[in-house]
Amino acid sequence: MLKSIFQRKILWALFGVAGPALVAFAASPILARGLGPAARGQFAASIAVLGLAAFLADLGLSNGLMVAAARSGAVNPQVFGLAIWTYLGSATATAMCLVILRELDIAHFSWWIILGIPVILTGNLLRAPITASGNTMILAIERWAQSVSRLAFLAVFAFAGLLTHDLATFAHIASLAVCLLVPAFGWRGIKKNHEELDFNLRRFGLATWSVGLSSVVLVRLDQLVLLPVAGARQLGIYAVAAGLGEVPLLISAALRMTYEGRIAGSRSARPMALPLFGALALGVLITSISVVAGPWIVSLLYGDSFKTAAPIFTILLAASVPAMVVDMCGSSLIALGRPGAQWRAATLAAIVTLILLYPLAHRYGALGAAYVTLISYVVAAGACFFELCRHEPKWWLARREESSGGEVRCSVPENV
Fold this sequence. Notes:
Blueprint: H1 2-58, H2 61-72, H3 77-103, H4 113-133, H5 136-159, H6 165-178, H7 181-186, H8 201-230, H9 232-245, H10 247-266, H11 273-302, H12 309-335, H13 339-364, H14 366-391, E1 399-402, E2 408-411
Antiparallel strand pairs: 1-2
């Protein structure tokens, strides 16, 4: 019975990740063909700034809320009240910093991202207990609603001939705001626990925040550096290739959504072993196919103006394989209450990125940034796997056994 429940959760997670990704693929050519390489690069820069600003304002509290809800099996009003007040202060401070940077002409982005920060933080707050409970159906519906509404906004603007990078940013944020109703609806069945919880939210949040800061360097720094170093056109080409190259990450995201709550509750990474290796095998297969089909896919979807994105697409698709290890092993470390271990792995990869990104991006443009991404994710994957093995030796040898009572448990042979 328990086995079938988790199978359904994985299917819902895949439905919620892969399905919206297909809708996003439909929106991507609209953006690329409607904006062109240069404007597409400006839009990518705005989204990168939004992601970085929202992360800085989050202060790691979303991960802390998820772990707290998973350990207590309910929502603690005091913990969530503390998170709300902290979010209000951090969002205000981050928005003020962005306004100053924009006015001083240090950073270039759409003004809409100022409104995007509280929208993202509200979503983090609402999704934390839902993720802890493993209710992947609600998360799947939210992702679908976001993708469909974003596609609708972009299609209307493109059909009217009004599509600009500024309106594209508005469409992105508006879709996130409208779809907050979905996780809000999912709170109806969540229990409340007024007992005092032995869990320091801010301390754990800041610990995971420091981990995420290194991860943000891995994910966002390439797009932030490419704009001033190589120009908006190179960034636009890189952004198109990056969108296509993230396909295998949809698989790891679906599995992470399903299992991280279970790992936090059982305090063991063994449930993640088989899903991880299955996802890696599928990722290698997709990357192999892209070597042949990559140029045809890029030309078909985006036209000749983006044809130079084909080799970048193949490199980034190869980088997504170690990125799946980072995603799943890193989330396991956080769910196990070991954010410091992930911080060491992410920091090592961030240092590699900081050293290599500027010289390679300056000389080779988007292609150089793609190689840096591949190298950094390989370093991060090896470090995350090593840290997880230090915390729980031989977790990756776990096998799933079905007990006579119908429960599914993970165990390691006694002679290992």
